[in-house]
Amino acid sequence: MFEDSLVESTGRIRTRSAKLAIGSFLLEAAILAVLILIPFLYPDALPRQALTTLLTAPPPPPAPASLPAQPAVTRPPAPSMLASLTAPSRIPPHALNITDNPAPSAIGPGLESTGPAVPGSLKNLFGQGAAPAPKVVVEPKPRTGPLRISAGVAAGQLLAPIRPVYPIIAKTARIQGIVIVEATISKTGAVENAHAVSGPPMLIPAAIAAISQARYQPYQLNGEPVEVSTTINIVFTLNE
User: Fold this and answer.
1) CA-to-CA separations, 216 to 46, 90, 142, 160, 194, in angstroms, rounded
2) In CATH, which of 3.40.50.2300, 3.30.2420.10, 3.30.70.1660, 3.30.70.660 is domain 147-236?
3) What is the mean pLDDT of residues 97-104?
């Protein structure tokens, strides 16, 4: 019996608490809506100080400082040409004939000039009395030193291929490379003044010795043999 009464009272309490929560929520919402709508419906209810602050316009920006006015520059009027012309006081009965004397011609009869010689005159044009221009003879400068030719041209003048002896020390040390030698080929085709420019130092003596024994066909210029200088490359390669 007591259990049934407790169950029934619990259901009633829950129902009343739910209705009370909903009613309180609706009442608070109505009060909040009234507080929001009062300023719009009755603006007189707002304090005067708040209305004055809202309705007061901001002060205008300061006006720019005025610059001092510059005096206007007045220009004098341009002189009129008509103002300088005046009418003659008396008109002459007869018109005057004014003849200008032509300047004496600088060239008289026979195309001879009576004054000083003027460049570009007819006398100079026809070549009368003008001194002939001296002929300038340009002499060829004497050639000094041997004529320079390329390594390819010198290789074409070689009578027999150059076969250097590979040094044993360089072969043992497995040194190989290219030795560049500057040399002079005389009028007879012999190699003179051979000196190395670059290359492995252990291979230079063998390269110079082989080049000094080489013979070339004399290089000819205008049908005559001349002395030339060129570059000779000696290649040392180890055959594996």
Assistant:
1) 124, 111, 25, 8, 14
2) 3.30.2420.10
3) 58
Q: What is the mean pLDDT of residues 194-203?
A: 93
- Least confident range from 34-38, 49-53, 230-234: namely 49-53
Instruction: Look at the alpha carbons of 140, 144, 150, 152 in this order and tell me if their dihedral is positive or negative.
Output: positive
- The amino acid occupying position 47 is P
H or E stretch including 180? Answer: strand 177-185
* pLDDT exceeds 70 at position 80: no
Check residue 94 and give its pLDDT. 64
Q: What distance in Å separates the CA atoms of residue 83 and residue 33, rounded to the nearest whole number?
A: 94
Residue type present at position 147: L
Q: How do the domains of the chain map onto residue ranges?
A: 1-56, 147-236
125 pLDDT exceeds 60? no
Residue 216: other Cβ atoms inside 10 A: 22
Res. 197: pLDDT tops 90: yes
Q: Are strands 219-221 and 228-236 parallel, antiparallel or unpaired?
A: unpaired
228-236 vs 147-148, strand pairing mode = parallel
Q: Are 196 and 206 in contact (CB under 8 A)?
A: no
Give the C-alpha separation, 170 to 177, whole Å.
11
